Amino acid sequence: MDATAVFAGGCFWCMVKPFDSLPGIKKVISGYTGGTVANPTYEQVASHTTGHTEAVQITYDPGVISYAQLVEIYWRQTDPTDAMGQFQDRGDSYRPVIFVNNDEERAIATASRDRLAASGTFDKPIVTQIEATQPFYPAEAEHQDFYRRNPWRYQIEEMGGREQFIKTHWSND
């Protein structure tokens, strides 16, 4: 039986590709979660008035890839020390959050965050929030599979700062 995981880590365009081609991943959907408006539009979320966060919803086969593995992949896509956005994406709609479906996922995410904090990988505190899953609303069609449909724009606009950060913090593993 498939399961879902929801992660926020800046612009959802950048959060799709790292999960999309992994064994056991069925689909990755860009969308919005955590806000006060049902079925928000991109413009509403970008206005920072709805409380939503850009996120990805990952449908996966837990017999092939575990939730714990997904959390570990998630850390490597974000700056967990930046509570007010990610890289060039600034504001509450870009904050880093692991949304959990149950107590087991909360325990896995919390233990992983604690290990990361104790690892010395970062000089600043880990501020990524762990919150209960809220309704998830898929983004408009033009935001789905962005990295495939717009590879040049994806690379230039979205990945420059993120890639450098990842190389700096994760290259010694």
Automatic annotation (TrEMBL):
One of its GO terms (molecular function) is peptide-methionine (S)-S-oxide reductase activity. Keywords: Oxidoreductase. InterPro entries: Met_Sox_Rdtase_MsrA_dom (IPR002569), Met_Sox_Rdtase_MsrA_sf (IPR036509). Belongs to the MsrA Met sulfoxide reductase family. It is an enzyme of class 1 (oxidoreductase). It catalyses: [thioredoxin]-disulfide + L-methionine + H2O = L-methionine (S)-S-oxide + [thioredoxin]-dithiol; L-methionyl-[protein] + [thioredoxin]-disulfide + H2O = L-methionyl-(S)-S-oxide-[protein] + [thioredoxin]-dithiol. HAMAP family: MsrA. Pfam families: PMSR (PF01625). Has an important function as a repair enzyme for proteins that have been inactivated by oxidation. Catalyzes the reversible oxidation-reduction of methionine sulfoxide in proteins to methionine. The keyword Oxidoreductase applies. SUPFAM superfamilies: Peptide methionine sulfoxide reductase. This is Peptide methionine sulfoxide reductase MsrA. Its EC number is 1.8.4.11. Residues 4-155 form the Peptide methionine sulphoxide reductase MsrA domain. The gene is msrA. The keyword Magnesium does not apply. The active site is at C11.
